[in-house]
Design goal:
By secondary structure, the protein is mainly β. It has one domain (4-93). It contains 1 helix and 6 strands. Strands 5-1-2-6 form a 4-stranded antiparallel beta sheet. It is globular and about 35 Å long. The protein starts with a strand and ends with a strand.
């Protein structure tokens, strides 16, 4: 399994207390796009981010949809112990 580093950026939701970008570990672009900086999961059925119980996330800190996230491959991951879904760094705009 080859792991890559991806830069994810969004300007769909640029209010206070939101993330604008992050670098993540993933096998491919599709997997990278599904990573939320607060650990939520994308629910295609609900078309929104949900918690581990399937409830819609209350705090809108990231893009409103996965389609609005831009993904750029930035390199091969050589971080020892890294696994898909890990976040290397994230940028938060506090309000």
């Amino acid at each position: 399994m080859s792991l890559n580093l991806y830069l994810l950026m969004q300007d769909d939701n640029n209010d206070y207390d939101t993330f604008d970008s992050m670098i993540v570990v993933a096998e491919n672009e599709e997997q990278a796009r599904m990573i939320h900086p607060d650990g939520y999961d994308w629910s295609p059925d609900k078309n929104t981010w949900v918690n581990h119980r399937g409830e819609e996330c209350i705090f809108k800190t990231w893009a409103f949809s996965i389609e609005s996230i831009s993904v750029e491959h930035v390199g091969i991951c050589s971080i020892e112990g890294a696994k898909p879904g890990d976040i290397v760094i994230k940028s938060f705009n506090a309000g």
